[in-house]
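Blackboard transcription, Thursday session:
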Amino acid sequence: MFLAGCPAKPEEEEEKPLVEEPVKGGSLVIGYDQEPDVLNPFIKGGDMMATAVIVRVVLQGLLEIKPDLSYGPQLAEKVPSIEDGTVTENPFTVIYKIKKEAKWSDGKPITSDDVKFTWETIMNKKWNIISRTGYDKIEKIETPDEKSVKIVFKEPYAPWKDLFGGSCFILPKHALEGKDFNTVMNRAIPIAAGPFKFKEWKSGDSITLVRNENYWKDLAYLDSVTFKYIPETTTQLAQFKTGEVDFIYPPPDVDLLEQLKATPNTVVNVKAGTVWEHIAFNNTDEHLKDARVRKAIAYGIDREVIAEEVMKGQVKPLHSFIVPEQAAYYVPVWEVYKYDPEKAEALLKEAGYAKGTDGVYAKTGKRLKLTFSTTAGNVARERIQQIVQSGLKKIGIEIEIKNTEADAYFGTWLPESQYQIGLWAWLASPDPGYTTLFAGDQIPDKGQNYYRYVNDAATKLWHKQDVTVDETERIKLIKEAQTLMAEDCPFVPLYQRFEFIAHTDKLHGPVNNPTLQGPTWNMGEWWLEK
Amino acid sequence: MFTYVARRLLHSIPVFILVSLIVFILMQYAGDPLARLRLNPYVTPQDIARLEREMGLDKPVSVRYILWLKNFVKGDWGESLSHHRPVFELIVERTINTLQLMMVALLFTFILAVPIGIYSAVRQYSKFDYVATFFSFLGFSMPVFWFGLILQMVLGYYLMKVLGFQLFYTASMYSVGKEHDIINRLQHLALPVITLSLAYIAGWSRYQRSSMLEVIRADYLRTARAKGLKESKVILKHGLRNALIPIVTVIMLDMPALFGGAVITEYIFAWPGIGRLLHYAIINGDYFLVMGITMVSAFLVVFFNLLADVLYGFLDPRIVYE
Amino acid sequence: MAWFPLEEIEKEELALAEEYTPWSVFWKKFKRHRLALISLFLLVFLSVTVVIMPFILPYQYDEINLKTRFQSPSLSHPFGTDDLGRDQLVRVMYGGRISLAVGFSVALFSTFIGVALGAVAGYFSGWLDNTLMRFIDFALTIPPLVILMVAGSIVAGGIFEIILIVSLLMWMYIARLIRGVFLSLKEKEFVEAARACGASDFRIITRHLLPNAVAPIIVNATLAVGYAILIESALSFLGFGIQPPIPSWGNMLQRAQQTMIMYPWLTWFPGAMIVLTVLSVNFLGDGLRDALEPTKALEVM
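(Written on the board underneath:)
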């Protein structure tokens, strides 16, 4: 487990012997900044973290993502693998066995029919499903018996584990069949498979969950959990200090973290997340299409200083587009771009630039003046911009900052490549298949290659790994792609954003899971001191 | 009177249409309902295009506007793009919460502002007048969000430290599980009500002061005094009634602003009202919801303007409506 | 300023005045409103300070120093430093330029539109008046909050755009007021006399009517300055105000409130500036009203 800036509190706790036994009972109030739009995680609006943290403890998947980003079985007995013959090629097939004891909160068993129903629901054209990527690669799902699922694919699909685990949940067929899926789970979840049941949603105010007394594993300790929606962070903090909320999961702001660490009787848990920030280049720009200019900028940016100063050392520089937690795939290929202003200027000269009287490099009369844009109002990003601006000034590159609000940025500026240097973040998943971001044939509208980066060799690698189910082979391909891309430097990875939770020291059990799973993933094991 | 009201309402129909058209067009440039999905590497541009089609966002603005207008007139206000719920239902639900906050704030402001205004007028240029004037202006000059957050810290957190128990809660409508506890509700209402009333206490008490001043100097009060009535009786019996007429008008005209104007207060105190709903809808380009709230607000402006005029005529018999 | 009706000044007032120029009468009355007088000096002082100070101070408003973040007020940084280690004093001064510029521009701009339309509507009754009044009704019916937020989210924080939006929300009030004044004035004898002498409509409006409406115009314009500054700060809180790195008192206060519990002094200075300015503007408006409006002016203090 990767702990970025281990807080003082947990260490103290280790010294104090944990003699206390978990006790049953108590209700927990969680302060949360954003209210879900809908509770159905499959349809539009259900893609919010606010939805995930609730659905996570009410519904379950066949697999779950552990805090170390590995997959573990949840409803399935084990993770299928080639070794034990549950994953076979030609045709690519995955076989799951559902746990015998797994049942819904109404007592009915969770069956292979439910898995099949889930797939059919996702593929049904009537419903406003966010994405069918991967599910459309499934040829058919067979249900040899009540607890066995055989998934037959049209073609090999490497990220198959994500399809029925992670952020996909198995749906109760008997409760949803024949209902309008666009509306049926928007305001309530009818039946639970997890440790908690949905109780009520007070619009604009709160959502309350209660213990699922019929849970097929150890019952939860907490009687009830209420998510209270408090949009203003300062208010959230005040609520936490007065004890009106017991647990907060605030935006990852360093100053806020410092404030919480100074709060008595509080446990703060910080961890590197899977959201990674990076400085992106428009690879078709007249200056930036030259790899030497891109590299010069990479050498002119002190990423250590950014991590240290902007994030107060809570994060470390990231050296790839794969996060270190994805240990098998990770190669720190961007490590070579250590801050080196001399090398940066040498590269610019090599690219045919000469320093003008104003201290700014120019080539054929065109000054090296670049616009640097990001989403307006994001304090951390604005700080980074300022550091980069003053850093690049020293190596003779003039940066003009021009930001816009997030909607326009992601809706227009990036897809239409209205930027020279950009700054935004991607969300990593446990599966490292980034074809739509980096393959040369994925330039918008086709995909999300906002960099307009084209390298035929890399493009081939990305497409090949998509259909490679042999793990070792796939690892090789992805490592190769990283090396190729670092050489081209179409962007500069900065750091993984950290995430943190803070809660009263009366609460025991939370382990911050930085993946898509959110901090509530093991809420069944949480308990409150009396 | 009836024809007057009917004519006024009829005249406002083109105004409503124009307002709706302008806000509708502006909304096309405001938020993007699919912004979050565009950030998700697992949602392909094809998915985005499909969802846009499913939501009807691919149609031209003119087509969507006419469709919206047609349905709106028929009573179908559409479905919120982000909440996937009927707009009307959402507005009703949140309006109930806002009304609660608003009514208490209104009452609080009225009880405070009117006596302050009257006393300031009767004792014009006294110490009380100066102090009241100064503080009402000070209240008006405070940025609302700053004042609200200071209240949370001082009356919420520090007061709790001093007292040992929580007298005022810092946010939301009630404590978990205490939805029907009136005391608990009042403890939650206190801070947002003070915040919301701040600017209005200033305005209303100043207004009350000047209308009272005018009345005090009026001939009929001189007559009353000349009759030998006691000064307190002169003021309360003859002065007050006439001095209250203008403030009623002002209150009516402030009503629509209070309806939506609570957005900052609601945001800070996590009050699940209409203002927060509107703010969220605008950021997320939820144009059906924005249109619904716009039309309600516009209607309230017209309605309360009319009500103010009618009431004025009712209270002051000299005014006749053709 | 020949419009001031001298005959209304009562005897005790006459005794006070050595010379009865309207200006001296105005000044004498204005001086009595202590708070207004103090406010006037304060506003002038503030305006001059925010213009001059950024030239004198050894820091730039956008000069980042991550080594000196969140420093409490000291000799080298009298207002402390902010979350990027920037000197708060120079930022408050620079932000003051922006906020005051927004305030005064909005006041000027909205007054200009309002007076022009209100004068035309009031002077030429008939269809022109009807159309304009319709337009004013329409502008008043658009919920200001909706327009502020929608327009704010579209323009994303340019100074000029913010001035425009806020002005467009305020001109109607002054327009209605001026229309009312003109309606009652245009029947007066002096207007008829002017008309009889063959004066053009434009001349009557600008030379005869407008000077008589100066009092409400000035008072309203003054108050508009305060409103505009407050609206900008509210917009900043909602994320639609003037965008960083350009500081305004509003966006500085918004930014500072995020760390308010730990570093409260960061909110004090921009907050106090807003309060001080708006308060002064209001007292000034109050004083001007007393001094300019002849009927109300002579209450003995």
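Lecturer's comment: Residues 88-123 of chain C form the longest helix (36 residues).
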